[in-house]
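Subject — a protein and its fold

Tokens — whole-number codes for backbone shape
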Amino acid sequence: MEAMMGADYADMLWELGYQDLSETVESIGKDNRDTWLKLDLKGRSAEDGLTDIAYEKGAHFLRRVEEEAGRQKIDSFLYQYFNSHAFKTMSTEQFLAYFNNELLHGDTALAAKIRVKDWVYGPGIPDNCPRVPQARFGKVDAEREKFLKGGAAASLQTTGWTSHEWLHFLRKLPKPMELAQMQQLDGAFHFTETGNSEVANQWFIMSVAAGYKPAYAKMEAFLSQVGRRKFLTPLYTEMMKSTEGAAMASSIYGKYRGNYHPLAQETLDKIIRK
């Protein structure tokens, strides 16, 4: 993305990934063993490891390595790694041995800056987690602040925003929002009708929290078509927070459970039928 769209665009993806990681760690618990990169799934379902920890904590670990070792060095390492290990399996310990031999080369100062053990064998988000500049999201934050201070939604400067900017805009709004604010945002930007699943899912979560019923029909249509737990789990979880929402969740899930992957069914059964 950086090569195709520029560094400021890639920075938005990094920040959204960090937000996902932070939310996952908060929901699991920052000291939970499942926030280690080295997961312990012995005697457990493999699906227990399918969280943002592997993806986002792993990605930020590699960015930490890149920032300390340099892009040229890590690019060379990754090229060599994929060429020499294609179509093979590897354990965490085997990878770290290879990493130490082929990238660190005994450089204790570099190792101390990266702090591999904190990332792989430690909980939560290490305090040396890299963060990126917020050039484009900073502008989004400024427009959101205008709205929260009483500015009209239609007057916000949003021309040229991508789905990433819209997602960041929505994620940082208060929850629940006032119904009048939800109506104003929907009237100006038509979130209920969006065709972007990421933005739609966030908007529907906000709609459930606020009791914004004009979005409910589209939300049900959305839940009849999507199958990823990434979308299903937080939306059904939000519905289960109230008596009215729980009844709606039960009704919708009863209609569309058969559309979902068995792993999604297993997860949602625990949420809705507990």
About this structure: The CA atoms of residues 145 and 151 lie 9 Å apart.
